[in-house]
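Exam review. A common question shows you a sequence with its structure tokens and asks you to describe the fold in words. Practice with the pair below. Do the first one on your own.
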Amino acid sequence: MRRPRDTSRPRATVTSPNWGVKVDANRSAINALGVQTAERFDQVDRQFEQVDRNFAEIRGRLDQTAAGQQQIADMLTTLIERQDGQ
């Protein structure tokens, strides 16, 4: 069963002066959401840039560690080969 329409308040119609106000308010709200969304994407991009920089720094440190370990392994191999040759 349908409820009767509330007639105590006038309804906005396409020709009423309130219609333009509502359209402008909706447009403003949508534009504000677009700006907020763009700002959030910019923030996410900045955070990813920081992650990339940190990754590159850690990668460099790990590469240095691996190079040092390889030198140690090479020296141990040389010492073992010398002992076996005696």
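Now try the second one, then compare your answer with the model answer below.
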Amino acid sequence: MAPKRNDMAIEQLEYQQKKQLVRLPLKVQTYSGYKADERPVAFTFGEKACKVVELIDRWYGVDHAYFKLRANDGNLYVLRHRMENDQWEMVVMEAGQPLEHE
């Protein structure tokens, strides 16, 4: 028996909610210029280490700083820094084109 249309919609919504709640803890190396943790320069999640090649955007919330960047693997990432406890999380990863080596 095929699932009912309503059941499929509920399953899809639950999947979307779970997907939005996924946060990957990171180890982040930062550049500290005129303030501490001014911007990320490299990060590691799991066994994968990435270097930041381009800082695309940054914005600040009440207790978080967000950084949209491109890493040396060609992917786009949004990293979130929770300033009160110095915790970093990856909130978005978007596959990009591999970068050419110079």
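Model answer, second protein: Residues 33 and 56 are 18 Å apart (CA to CA). The chain has one helix and seven strands. Full marks require stating both points clearly.
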